[in-house]
Amino acid sequence: NPTTLVTFVIGGEDKIDIEEFFVFNEFSCYHSPVWKAALNGNFLEGNTLTNTMEDVEPKVFRLLAQWLYSGTFEDLQQARSKRVILKAFHGVVYRRLALLWGLIEMLLMPPLQNAAMLALCLWSKKYDATGIMVFNHVFDNTASGSPLRKLCVAQ
């Protein structure tokens, strides 16, 4: 049914920062075989049409949802158009993109991984935004030989 919505409950490891996102089931299943299996199978997610992801930050999931609907990262385009010059902000954006890349690797979404990797490359080149916190997260949460690790080392 093209009008069926899935509720994604995002965040909440700290029980404070929780947001709900509503995404068309068709979009979710089309872009991720992981979601397709969970939402169409005999799993809790499929029965309730709710997917809880406590370890994902809402701002990271927002980037994913924006890409599902528009094929772009709206937040990044707005930041560039405002010409934000704070280096700390650029590090935050880079970190979000790195977290997004890890999430979509888990969800098996290669086209979005490519878009996130391109955004990471462009963002780091333009703003010199990589940092030790991003390095630590990437090396703690990716496999040896990961393209994201290679990017961090190259930057």
Architecture overview:
With 155 residues, the protein is mainly alpha-helical. It has 2 domains: 55 residues, no CATH class; 98 residues, no CATH class. The protein has 9 helices and 3 strands, in the order ββαααβαααααα. The longest helix is centred in the middle third of the chain and has 20 residues.
Write down the secondary-structure element order: EEHHHEHHHHHH
Overall pLDDT level:
81
DSSP helix fraction: 55-70%
Strand fraction band?
A: 5-15%
Strand order of the largest sheet: 2-1-3
Helical run tally: 9
Low-confidence stretches: none
Shape field: globular
Total count of strands: 3
Task: Compile the SSE list and pairings.
Blueprint: E1 5-11, E2 18-24, H1 25-31, H2 33-40, H3 44-48, E3 50-53, H4 58-70, H5 74-81, H6 87-106, H7 110-127, H8 132-141, H9 147-154
Parallel strand pairs: 1-3
Antiparallel strand pairs: 1-2
Concise summary:
Pfam families: BTB. This is BTB domain-containing protein. The chain is mainly α and 155 residues long.
